[in-house]
Amino acid sequence: MPPKKPSLSEFEMFRMWLANMIDLDHPLAKLAQKIDWERFDAAWGRFYHEKKGRPGLPTRLMAGLHLLKHIEGISDEEVCARWVENPYWQFFCGEEYFRHKLVCDRSSMSRWRRRIGAAELELLLAETIRLALANGALDRNACERITVDTTVQTKAVAHPTDAHLLLRAMEHLNRLAKKHGLALRQSYLRLAREARREVARLIHGKGHKQALRHLRKMRTWLGRLTRDIGRKIEALGEAGADIRAAFAETLELAEKVRTRQAKDKNKVYALHAPEVECIAKGKARARYEFGVKTSIAVTNRRAKGGQFILGMHTVPGNPFDGNTLTGQITQVERVTGITVKRAYVDRGYRGHGHKGEAEVFISHTRGITSPTIKREMRRRNAIEPIIGHAKSDGLLERNHLKGAEGDAINAILVAAGHNLRLLIAWFGALLRAILAAWLPQQPAIAR
């Protein structure tokens, strides 16, 4: 059913209005008043049915919780806990009275994200750009000249060593067998945990051959376990169709882990997140990162309110950077409604083959005579600290959302959170400027 505002109980009727409790000139309160919340209701109303299911939660509440989460760079659990304590956050989410309990559960945020999807959540990013343009923090010319780069949105997975993955495969299979009532001949968990400890102790020292023997044993045990489960399922006959379907994906992943070789493609790096990819970025501190490649576009020229993110999306499959350029420019034009005229990229985009209207300039290109383009090319490196802020202040590092869809959703929300942090700082600076201009005009108070 369409979202409805939660009703107040008889004990809440005489509570104080949030508007009387907070400073309406606070940057977060100003931001809440300027966002077009009805735009979200109109766009996402089709995901709800008038006469089926329980009444939906208010769209402003769910969108506000996600925006606050990515403004602060915190988890779902923490944003729900802090919402109850903070009247400014409750005002931001559309409440009129101070509430002592959150009207939804933390899991409601996960279900709401899956219902809306990454493509529709681009509207949150588009609203931050519209807000920046309307309030002078960003001008249209800055949206016509962009800088594009790629980074890695890392997943919250442990470092994928062979011993770790073999042990995890055994644990997953034993957990499923216990859930579906399959009595296994042997679990091999105690032996596998001891072997994993020995591998970690010996693999980087003089006991390298000994560690490899323990690894071979773990592969043997995993093979015995998968064959034992296969025999037990076959013995059930047609009655075991549901159990066979429940084990299918895990058995396939376990077999990939057991038989994988160093030069194999499409390796499994995490049992709970098989979509994770190994991406080599050439960094001294981390040769490989495990996650998904993410394309990001920012304003080339620093606007009055800062450097805004105009587009961000994931590109699974670890494609060549040049193949991501057209999609990124298309997203920027879709989100901002402004045609991109120039795009500045690094040398990893050589051979991009972009056919659109935008001119593409690759760093360190010789023979350019225009001083404006030279100056804007020097500004290309300014995208690096924006990526750093998205990882340290936002949630681009160690994403916890499930699946490839979770990666795409997180990228969009990280971009929206970054822009809102800039807007909050912009509204705060405007308030300070107004006060600085007003105070000298006031007459001195006689003592």
Give an overview of the whole structure.
With about 450 residues, the chain is of the alpha/beta class. The N and C termini lie far apart (about 65 Å). The longest helix has about 35 residues, at about 405-440. Helices cover about 50% and strands about 10% of the residues. The chain is globular, with a radius of gyration of 27 Å. The chain is built from 17 helices and six strands. The chain folds into three domains: about 20-115, no CATH class; about 120-155 and about 275-435; about 160-260, no CATH class. Strands 1, 2, 3, 4, 5 and 6 form a six-stranded mixed sheet that branches.
Key words describing this protein structure:
single chain; 447 residues; alpha/beta; 3 domains; six-stranded mixed sheet
Structure summarized in a few sentences:
With 447 residues, the protein is of the alpha/beta class. The chain has helices at residues 18-21, 27-34, 37-44, 59-72, 76-85, 87-92, 106-116, 118-134, 140-144, 162-180, 189-202, 208-236, 241-259, 325-336, 371-378, 383-392, 403-438; strands spanning 145-154, 277-280, 288-299, 309-314, 342-345, 359-362.
Unreliable segments of 5+ consecutive residues = none
Count the DSSP helices.
Answer: 17
Number of domains: 3
Number of strands: 6
| End-to-end Cα distance | 64 Å
Oligomeric state, counting identical vs distinct chains: single chain
The biggest sheet amounts to: 6 strands, mixed
Instruction: Classify the secondary structure makeup into a structural class.
Output: alpha/beta
Query: Which percent band covers the strand fraction?
Result: 5-15%
Arithmetic mean pLDDT: 91
